[in-house]
Design a protein that fits this description.
By secondary structure, the protein is an all-alpha fold. The protein contains 14 helices and no strands. Among the domains are: 3-39, no CATH class; 51-239, no CATH class. The protein is 57% helix and 0% strand. Helix 4 runs parallel beside helix 10 (220-236) and helix 7 crosses helix 10 (220-236). Mean pLDDT is 86; it is low at 15-19.
């Protein structure tokens, strides 16, 4: 058997995974076989976790990991926003180039994030550590299929839960003014705005991220990975940049950064945090603004149509009331009850 033919033979057998006996004949593949007849490509990574069992089995492990990785994720973008304003290679991707992040805005978001974590998340985490039993760690890693699919399904559940929460906190004026409106003090988001939230929203989002994988009885490795992945894409939605490799550029079902950035500009649109199918179904989708502040034709068409609808609504209300009305746009309506940062 030639080298190429042998390579394709093992490749095809690898993806079939119906009969793993062939793996025994491949040198060095023993690390992927935690048990006879069982193949797990993620087993070497899981063995590392098992070697740190005394630490990772604690209920505090995923919380501490999430907090540390969150700081790691946002700090590079803080540096870019503060010291890279003249870096044309990255600034050309800024969605709202006329609204750069300021140190005052970043500092305010950092302080509230720190306050919420110390005052609310820390006591909750300690209570969870005291009353929640240690995580049971199986000896075998999840299959690659389960690892990927369960995270996707959990993300879809999270996305649906937050869409309902988010929609209601915009439509119910009391909830918007006293809870979700905190997040909308920033019209042009930056990385630290990801968790610039009212405590109730922070706890709700944390609950969605923690419990969504439970529905599918996910492996601990899958659960931990999902919590970090959901946080990563949440940060991506707030950095304020339209980078070429971001999912919204190649996945038609993905909302991503351009849609959430538009949500901060037009708060009555794009309620989904990750995907876009519910916004399309409910008529709340708005096309996103692109790199360099470019407005694509579909966004210009949406704005024109929306302006015409508001004009018709104004005339209808004026005819009923006999008064001249001044209907504000979505952002101006929100600003009436907020103190925006930018």
């Amino acid at each position: 058997m030639g080298a190429n033919a042998e390579m394709w033979y093992y490749w095809n057998r690898f993806w079939e995974l119906k009969d793993v006996s062939f793996i025994q004949s491949i040198p060095g593949m023993e690390i992927f076989r935690p048990a006879p007849g069982v193949f797990r490509i993620l087993q070497p990574l899981w063995e590392i976790a098992l070697g740190l069992e005394n630490y990772v089995k604690s209920p505090l492990f995923p919380i501490v990991l999430s907090m540390c990785l969150y700081v790691v994720m946002v700090m590079p973008w803080v540096y870019i926003d503060m010291y890279g304003r003249e870096w044309k290679w990255i600034q050309k991707y800024k969605i709202q180039p006329d609204k750069p992040a300021t140190w005052a805005g970043i500092r305010k978001a950092m302080l509230l994030t720190l306050w919420n974590h110390l005052l609310y998340l820390l006591p909750i985490s300690v209570a969870q550590w005291v009353w929640t039993p240690d995580t049971v760690l199986p000896k075998i890693a999840p299959t690659l299929w389960d690892f990927c699919v369960n995270q996707y399904l959990a993300l879809a559940v999270f996305d649906f839960e937050y869409y309902i929460w988010h929609f209601s906190h915009h439509k119910v004026r009391f909830l918007y003014k006293h809870v979700h409106g905190v997040h909308h003090q920033y019209h042009a988001p930056h990385s630290w705005v990801t968790q610039y939230l009212h405590p109730w929203e922070l706890i709700a989002v944390g609950t969605f991220a923690t419990t969504s994988p439970w529905i599918f009885s996910s492996h601990p490795m899958t659960h931990w990975s999902f919590m970090q992945f959901s946080m990563l894409i949440s940060v991506e939605a707030h950095i304020g940049y339209d980078l070429p490799l971001m999912p919204h550029n190649w996945a038609p079902f993905w909302g991503g950064g351009i849609k959430h950035d538009m949500h901060h500009q037009k708060p009555l649109t794009n309620f989904q945090p990750f995907f876009n199918w519910f916004d399309r179904l409910m008529g709340t989708e708005c096309p996103g603004q692109r790199a360099g502040g470019y407005k694509p034709p579909e966004l210009l068409d949406w704005e024109k149509k929306h302006a015409e609808l508001r004009l018709l609504k104004r005339k209808e209300l004026e005819s009923k009331s006999g008064l001249l009305l001044n209907l504000l746009d979505d952002q101006a309506e929100e600003d009436l009850i907020l103190d925006p940062v930018n």
